[in-house]
Amino acid sequence: MNIERLLKDAAAAETRGVTRESLPPLSLPAARRRPARRWTAPVAAVLAMVAVAAVSVGLRGVLRGPDALGAHEGPPYFLATQRKGGVGVFDSWTGRKIADIRPDAGHYTALAVSADRRTAFLAAETGSCRTHIEKATLRRDGTVASRTTLPGEFGPPADEMAATADGGRVALTFDNTTGCVGDDLAVVESASGTTRGWRVSPGGADTLSSAQSPVWAADGRALFLAENVPAGPGEDYTGPDLSELDTRTAGAGPLRARPVLRGITDLSSLRPSPDGRTVTAIKKNFGADSALSSIAIVELTLSGGGSGETSSVRELARMTARQIAPAPSAGFQTTLDATGRHLLVSSGHDRAVFRMDDGRVRRLPDVHRDLDLIAW
Length: 376
Known about the structure:
Keywords: Membrane, Transmembrane, Transmembrane helix. InterPro entries: WD40/YVTN_repeat-like_dom_sf. By secondary structure, the chain is mainly beta. 10% of the residues lie in helices and 39% in strands. The N and C termini lie far apart (96 Å).
């Protein structure tokens, strides 16, 4: 006996007995009226979208880090000496290390990078009263393509350096307080190593003349210097002056340079405009307790007649101490890029590096090391 077939036949017989007329009418309970809330669904949807967006942004910040550097948001990388030795090349948006440059001997005392980001110069103190200049060619991504040592050497250690926009020339000022004999200022042709040097005459008993903070004009010929010239008889000392030196004029010297700005004591990282009419600089501001209160990017007008008059200061952007808390230590570093629009600050306190672009302050998330000198 096929039980499965018997069950199917019985089910079919029962189904044939069910007709439309044999079914009772369906009765439903009356619906209760509720107040209309047409806004509930849209608001819930909006809140859900906000929550999703917040979570997405938070996760992106944790997992991906900052957005990629834009085409017009400053140099893509910077160079910095490291307290453990050598120079590192770092991504200027994340702080990630791109490359390491180690000296063959000694240690680096100064560095500079050209505005086109292709050439870096490093001053290596290789022994007592012995300093050599290294030249590194960089690729677009900041990696090192080649390295060479320029001919010749200097006695005193290099204090500061500045490269022309194309890397064709590099200027150096020297620390002559070490007992080493040599020039106070030198200009080196990077292709040949040809060097021209200047000596600065000593000043009075209270103040010594010196040349500091070199920076090139756009033409690669004029060199701006902060000259610490002693005051004359009956004059009040107002601090160093900014002067312009034509490095290709025979017989020129720092003290014969044309003064373009008086009293730049509180200014650093000066960057002349392409037309030579203004200069952008960093100005550090301190409170009554001598603690740092802010770091500002300011613009000043240069004197066209060689009188070197003082200029009114126009503030372009400001970074407060709270924005880079905890407050930087006494040895923190600040520098502007070649355009004067982008600022880097290495706090020297908690291994943090900050940048400011058009007044917006960001901390580089991947920097967790002590940095010293910075070239951007």
